[in-house]
Amino acid sequence: MATLRDIRRRIGSVKNTQQITRAMKMVSAAKLNRAQTAVKEAQPYAAQLRQMVTTLSKGTSGDDHPLFNTQNQGKTRIILFTSDKGLCGTFNSGLLRALIREMEKSNGPMADPELVVIGRTGNDAMKNSGFLVKEALVNVKPVDIQGEVKIRIQQAAQDFSEGRIGRVFLAYNTFLSPLKQNPTLHQILPIEPAEPSKEGGAKDGEEQTAEYIYEPDRDEILNRLLPHYLENQGFTAMLNTVAGEHGARMVAMEAATKNAGEMIRRLTLQYNRVRQAAITRELIEIINGAQSL
Known about the structure:
Blueprint: H1 4-56, E1 75-81, H2 91-103, E2 114-118, H3 120-128, E3 133-137, H4 142-161, E4 165-177, E5 180-189, H5 218-292
Parallel strand pairs: 1-2, 1-4, 2-3
Antiparallel strand pairs: 4-5
């Protein structure tokens, strides 16, 4: 049976842990506020950029631009976004399970891929699962991560244009709320152009597509716009990952703080019972000693 000293030491240890988890929750909440704002502010621009690419790509094929080429036979490259740190619940594990499940399909588009992993957690998980990691970026400073992601997207676009790889996927968590992040496997290359059949007018209730005059010309606009569009896809994935990580950590630390409080309550109750038992035992010894005199 635990002594009073052991229980007091345990209560003190749990209280110290509770202070740490409460502080981590507050830090994550402050970081989440900024990250969530960044995600919301980036969404309108990303949506408008996607609409421009969709409009410009109507009737486009791989013969018109290499980034639309669906005939490349090279390996698939997956750029995986995870966190460098843990203590964020199932934020990383849910995405990793979904990705590994797709990679283990022998006839799937993600079979035997080249992995570019951003984040220590994803790098460790992929290596422990037996997958070959082509490149890993771990413990990158927040001020440098956007530039590093941009470089990897540019390299993927160049390798795809030259036929060294056949497809490029982004694997990340889409931020919906602090309580919910959806694992996302999004193909960015080849870019899928809009179907030509949609050109001939809209159905009832649909918005009519506007007609555009391209200046200087459509091909030059595509050459400038498509690389920027791909970089924006990587930037959006990075923002969602950062926001999702802080949201998941805030929720996990809040749950840990509550669990620590419950543990302190149970240990305090146990402490009081042991203390009361010790007092009762001493009283009985005193009474028995007095009666023997």
